[in-house]
Amino acid sequence: MKLFVATHNQHKIREISQILPGFEIVPDDPEGVEENAPDFAGNALIKVRAIAEKHKGEWCMADDSGLEVKALGGAPGVHSARYAGEPTNTPANNALLLKNLEGVEDRAARFTCCCALVDPSGEELVVHGHCPGHIAEKAAGVEGFGYDPLFIPNGYDKSFAELSADEKNAISHRGRALEKVKAILGGGSAGDGSRVERVEGRGGSRVLSWLKLFRVVNLPTVPGDVLVGAALWPCFAGCSLRILPVLLASLAGVFLYMFGLVDNDIVGAKTDKDRPIPDGEISFLAVRIARFVCLAAAMVVASLAKLPGLWWPAAFSLVVSVILYNRTKWSMAMGVCRGLNLLCGVLAANTVFSMDAALLAGPVALAAGIWTLYITLVTWYSKGEENDPEKKRRVGALVGGIVYLQLTALLVLSLMFPQVAAMRPLLIAGAVMLIVGGPGGT
Ligand code: IMP
Predict the structure, then answer these.
(1) Taking a C-beta distance cutoff of 8 angstroms, is the pair 28, 6 a contact?
(2) Which residues on neighbouring strands pair with residue 27, listed in sequence order?
(3) What is the pLDDT of residues 234-260, one digit of tens each?
(4) Nearest atom within ligand 1 for CA of residue 43
(5) What domains are defined for the chain?
(6) Residue with the nearest Cα to atom 10 of ligand 1?
């Protein structure tokens, strides 16, 4: 497929060709256009519109990119190419940047790349990619171009100019934006199942970034595990359900899950695409603090709820499984996490141990086993979903299915055993939430 690209920069053409190997990249310099927009998206659109005029019915693309340094209030930003004045002079730009950062301790910076596309019908689409890092004290390396010798990406101790082209493309702002472009050209979507971002602000709001970090659509599936486990105890131990500790145990379960989500994004910070940490929307320090806070919050809630002693080893095993899953990506480890979440519910509801309680082992093993298996299979099936919007949609339905399974289990238990009647209001609330909001996606 042909892709007209509005640039004459040979470095960019080479990087674009490397990242989009299946496309015939046709450079077309939009001579004479003035890039006077206040942001990258505006400039990219100015350039792509200029060439789309000439290539009607074809895919056209322009990118605008630059370096944003926190201590300089986002400069050089859209003025990156001509930071030290006209015409573009890379050594002078780099020297000026180092001079302006003399004695500055916080050298945090990020590269941003915005790609604007015009599709064959004339529709305009805009995507962004970011690469966070910091500015070195002195230049190093000979690869790449522009500010590469001064920019050290997060998680590395080498500058962009010391990385190979493949290494840079895998994490660079342009690489990340072009991955989105690739998904658009390949399937008409940005690879996340949604229609492409329209001209959007830089990075979206902070709140949205945190919501994205905590994958809020998945969180509602977590308390259900604990509630199903908790419902099993009174059924077989012959006592009534203590609803408050169980609700608090659900909350602790949610915090443990949030701990796992943050840990997962920290582990994948170098390789993940389109996530708040690699996109530079949330700093490493902030997520490390958040990871600690989530774990601490789970422990505080569990202590306040005075959860029975056996809850703690189960919760500890859950944390170990989460850490194992994040580092190995074994589907089974994720399945075990959710099985243990259910077990935490069983143990949270444990008030008195009677002989009847021994009967609990069978149903608990069965429920935890089914949970573990279902989640293991969904996790295994979901591998590679980020590049396959159709698969992503199916996985979303399977994740949503967790809530239906939980509600069905609770309904059956509450109908069979009067001891769990206290759960009925929760069931009604859950059913209403499902009807109003539908199940969570991925
Ligand atoms: P433009 O996107 O052609 O306007 O380029 C903006 C400027 O940002 C370039 O001239 C470089 O100075 C800088 N820049 C953009 N991307 C990179 C990169 O990957 N490495 C180094 N400098 C870059």
Answers:
(1) yes
(2) 5
(3) 777 667 777 888 899 999 999 999 999
(4) 4
(5) 2-203 (3.90.950.10), 209-437 (no CATH)
(6) 81
